[in-house]
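quick q for whoever's on today - can somebody do inverse folding on this one?? i tried earlier but teh output was garbage lol. tokens:
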């Protein structure tokens, strides 16, 4: 932040300089809310380390409002799914079957690509009284969840 076109001077830190920096980041660089939150937290950490943090910092250094999710949900219609399942993806039959299986698994069972797909092994398929796939969730510290078929 100190080497930025609108720098924050940490030797003489003022609310105005931080607000000016945040306004520039929002307007010109189109920074996301999370990027600004990380910078705000860095400023707060600096202020707390040197015992300069006061409640007025929270009043003046505000983040933009959180954006809602997708405006319109993404829905795959049957014709689109049919094209995904029967499309030609590679030069060999093996590549076609592999990509068709991946598309089928993602669309029907809700697996998150790519991490949950490449973690899957053949011993993760179970055919007991009710068949299921054991999905390993890498992003959740390798926890497992069953996907019933």
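ok took a stab at it. sequence:
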């Amino acid at each position: 932040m100190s080497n930025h076109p609108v720098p924050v001077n940490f030797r003489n830190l003022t609310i105005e300089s931080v607000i000016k920096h945040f306004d520039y980041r929002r307007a010109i660089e189109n920074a996301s809310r999370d990027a600004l939150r990380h910078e705000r937290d860095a400023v707060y950490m600096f202020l707390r380390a040197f015992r300069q943090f006061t409640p007025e910092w929270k009043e003046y250094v505000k983040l933009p409002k959180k954006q809602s999710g997708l405006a319109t949900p993404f829905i795959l219609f049957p014709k689109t799914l049919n094209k995904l399942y029967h499309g030609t993806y590679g030069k060999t039959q093996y590549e076609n079957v592999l990509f068709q299986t991946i598309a089928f698994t993602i669309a029907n069972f809700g697996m998150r690509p790519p991490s949950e797909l490449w973690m899957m092994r053949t011993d993760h398929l179970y055919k007991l009284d009710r068949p299921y796939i054991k999905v390993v969730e890498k992003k959740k510290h390798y926890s497992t969840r069953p996907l019933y078929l």
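fwiw The radius of gyration is 25 Å. also Residues 78-148 form one domain. so keep that in mind when u check it
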